[in-house]
Each structure stands twice: as C-alpha cells, then as structure tokens.
C-alpha cells in the first residue's frame, strides 16, 4: 500500500463551536442496526467469510443486492430528489459499525460513502454525476474513487494513469478518476484492473489503469479537488465507526471466551490480570464510541469542526481497534492464533484500517495544525 503524500499547506487554526454534539443513537438508527445485523448474521457470518477468503472473491454472492438495494443503505447519504433515502452520516455510521463487527467484505465504505460524497459535491453542476448517484443509491452500480486507500483527506492526489492499492476496485462498475483537468467517470470495462494481494483479504485492493481522455468529465480541476477532499473526509470519519464496531466485537468475543475457558477449575476471565486488561479495553471503547459518534454527527450537520473531529476520531479509533484485535488474539490463547478462528480477520482489518485515509500520525499532525499547536522541536 502506498504512503500518502506529505502534508500540504496547513489550514488556518479553528476553534470548537458552541453547538452541542448529539452522540446518542436514535430509535431509527437502532432499527437500522437490527436489520443490518440480522442480515449479516444470516448471510455473512464469520465462518462463511473464513470459507470465502480462500476463494477468488471474498464477496458473498447476492449480499450487496440485499443490503444496498433491498434494505436501501446504499442511498442513505443521497437526497430523495436524487433517488436516495435522504438520511445522514449518522445512519451510515451505524451500518459501518455492523459491517465492522462482522468484518464484512462489501464495497459500502468505498462506494456508498466515499464515491457518493464525491459525486454529491458536483451533482449540482453535472447531470452525469446526478444520474450516477441515482444508480449508486439504488445499489445497481458500485463506484470506486481511483486513489490509494492510504490517501488522507488533505493529501495530494494522483492525476490519472496507474493508481495502486485502490480498495474494492474489483467490485466497481465505474471509477471516479481525478486528473489534472478535472474529475472523470470511467466505466470499469474501459480500465485495466489488476488485483493485488492485501493484508486484509476481506477488503480487496487492485491497481487501476485508465487511459488519458477516457470516461465522462464531471467537474473541473478546482471542483474536483474539493469533491475528492469531501469524499475522503467522509470516508475517514465513518471509517472510525467501522473500527468501533470491530473493537466492540473483539471485546464481546473475548469476554465470552474467557467466561467459558477454564484453568485450575476457574474461568480464566476471573483472573485479575485478565480482568484488568479487559476493563481497560472497555474504557478505550467508551472513548472510541464518543469520538466516532462525534465525527459522524459533525459530518451529518455540516459542522465547521468536522475536519477536526474526523482527525480526532481517526487518531483514536484506529489505535483502539488494533489494540482490541490484538487482545482478542492473545486472550484467546492458542485457538486465537489459528486460521479457523475469526480473530485474525479482525486483526488484519484493524491493521489495514490503521493506515486507510491517512495514518494515525498524519491525523495527529492535522489536529495540531487545526488547533494551532506547534510541532515539537
């Protein structure tokens, strides 16, 4: 996976506004969670995924149609007038929490969030973008932004040609390709897609090559940069919710296992050293939930603090997810190290997510720049 370019010019420092954040889940969000969790439990449980990752494609056949089209989650961020559900990033965050819990291989983050947000930024000026949004919202089309998965919201962008480490490129029907003269929609059959071998087998990566002049132009260069930044910012912010869901599953599974596993005629979870480790992880999860929900709420309300809250969420949640997955493997003992147990799926997803849309260090630098803190000398 390629490294993100160096930080560009630092934005002006900002201050938190007085508008309170809403971190609680609504009844609608709880109902959506229940529907998504039930579908994933029925169609894409961990044992199903363990069998699929050894095949050519980790995607469960028909699952995207059921989730994106039948339940309608692909269009959560798309206004009703453009064929979507007219919901917000808060509802999309709930979906991603559940996808993170199940480590589900679906192009939801890449298509229904990043690509969708990118298109929303230019839909008012481009009929082609608006038409493509309707296709994405209905789950009939999958789009992928042709940038490396590691690209941070404030990073420089590739300008067409060959791009490596594009997430979910093998599932895409169309690519959004930033070029020097603007943003283009390039059909997948006009691009060359070469699969790569990723650490996280549940999120396929590929090298995508597009020819100069191919596809339909959606926006000019200035609009394209702003649109891609908006898409990557939403991706980074809602990735925190995926990391939160993954960490929650790791803790729940570890608590369940240590209650059932006995040594010296006692549950291993009753040993004080293990209780302390799980209690600390629970505290980390409380902070991660607050950070992820704050980022989702800021994106949903269009808050000026969104870039800062997204950076905070990524800097915190990425480390929490990795630590939760590591503890899950270790506290399961020998079984946690086997291919048959799903703990390694969570660990690989957590490590992959740790550098997606910018590394922890990059987001910490962004936080410092946004609040006017000078780096250590």
Instruction: Quickly count the helices.
Output: 11
Radius of gyration: 20 Å
Largest sheet: 4 strands, mixed
Shape: globular
> What do the pLDDT scores average to?
92
Distance between the termini: 30 Å
Characterise the protein shown here:
- With 377 residues, the protein is α+β, with helices and mostly antiparallel strands.
- The protein is 50% helix and 11% strand.
- It is built from eleven helices and nine strands.
- The chain has helices at residues 27-43, 46-52, 63-71, 89-102, 108-120, 127-137, 221-260, 272-301, 306-331, 343-353, 360-371; strands at 143-145, 161-167, 174-179, 182-187, 191-195, 205-210, 216-219, 262-263, 266-267.
- The strands form three sheets. Strands 1-3-4-7 form a four-stranded mixed β-sheet, covered by helices on one side. It has a three-stranded antiparallel β-sheet with strand order 2-6-5, with no helix packed on it. A two-stranded antiparallel sheet has the order 8-9.
- Helix 1 (27-43) packs parallel to helix 4 (89-102) and helix 9 (306-331) runs antiparallel to helix 11 (360-371).
- The longest helix has 40 residues, at 221-260.
- It is globular.
- The two termini are 30 Å apart.
